[in-house]
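Q: Given only this backbone (336 positions), what sequence would you predict?
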């Protein structure tokens, strides 16, 4: 990869500014072999599992990568579409819509590439695509509204290594008005079409508690997003809850846990619950299989009647506009 200038610096010879849209990633196909490759890359990242290598490596290669791929492949198969992985399909749709929106605002085609932290298209492939388009300055927009070392931090570090120098990152957008407005609109539209549940759970992917104790701002940013959304929806404190999903391993993760909360609500006589996952820009395994299928079954088994999952923002026009606002604001910053 050639030396890139900062997005705040003039590009040489009038070369273009480009956008790299980054997401977490997905296996290529829902098979144990593909999941083994994907999980090996994902779980080898010290930003995701920060145990000492001498302790974690025997567990990863001797146990996790032997047992988990089959189970994970079955989960992915339940949500896989004819077009492929939902996360990749939605991310590509979002990238295409964002490119059109930026062209409309700037009056020219701005090179834009999609890259995944794990899997394909990779971050390296996205950088090469932008290089081939003649880009000399890059704005990186990771699709993680809330900052965590395990997601955005890892993506930032990986891209910095690949590019050979720091790039210009949009670090988070958990309190961005356009993002919050898009979330509010999505909930209101869902309620208008399907009615309103007795409770709204605002569910985020969890992280181990020790990461928060070491200063990761993720939990606080999730709490801010949830509070801002609840206020926009004019919900009373007893009408919504902030919860965390997707635990892995035996360590204590952020609480309250989404699945346990659903069981408690069912035990209290709550029959209908709505769930939204604002931390996921695009629908994926954790929303479509974990929440909409598996947790919905847990809720029914505990005595609830219906869990209604409110889809991620995906390619909604309001979402596209919010992301374009973020990019345009970054481009408007004074150059050093």
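A: Predicted residues:
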């Amino acid at each position: 990869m050639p030396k890139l200038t900062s997005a705040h610096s003039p590009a040489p010879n009038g070369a273009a500014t480009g956008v790299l849209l980054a997401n977490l990633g997905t296996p290529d196909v829902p098979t144990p072999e593909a999941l083994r490759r994907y999980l090996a890359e994902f779980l080898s990242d010290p930003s995701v599992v920060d145990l000492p290598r001498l302790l974690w490596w025997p567990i990863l290669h001797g146990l996790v990568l032997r047992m988990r791929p089959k189970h994970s492949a079955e989960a992915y198969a339940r949500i896989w579409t004819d077009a492929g992985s939902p996360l990749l399909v939605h991310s590509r749709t979002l990238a295409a819509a964002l490119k059109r929106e930026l062209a409309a605002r700037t009056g020219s085609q701005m090179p834009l590439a999609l890259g995944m932290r794990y899997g394909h298209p990779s971050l390296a492939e996205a950088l090469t695509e932008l290089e081939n388009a003649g880009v000399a300055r890059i704005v990186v927009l990771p699709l993680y509204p809330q900052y965590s070392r395990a997601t955005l931090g890892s993506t930032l570090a990986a891209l910095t290594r690949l590019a050979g120098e720091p790039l210009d990152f949009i670090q988070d957008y958990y309190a961005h008005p356009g993002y919050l407005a898009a979330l509010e609109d999505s909930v209101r539209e869902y309620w208008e079409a399907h009615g309103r549940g007795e409770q709204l759970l605002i569910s985020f992917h969890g992280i181990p508690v020790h990461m928060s104790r070491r200063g990761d701002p993720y939990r606080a940013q999730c709490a801010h997003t949830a509070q801002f959304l609840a206020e926009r929806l004019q919900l009373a404190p007893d009408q919504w809850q902030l919860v965390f999903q997707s635990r892995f391993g035996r360590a204590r993760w952020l609480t309250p846990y989404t699945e346990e909360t659903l069981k408690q609500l069912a035990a209290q006589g709550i029959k209908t619950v709505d769930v939204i996952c604002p931390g996921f820009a695009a629908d994926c395994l954790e929303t479509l299989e974990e929440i909409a299928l598996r947790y919905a079954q847990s809720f029914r088994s505990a005595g609830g009647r219906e869990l209604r999952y409110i889809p991620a923002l995906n390619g909604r026009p309001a979402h596209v506009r919010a992301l374009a606002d973020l990019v345009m604001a970054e481009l408007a910053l004074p150059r050093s």
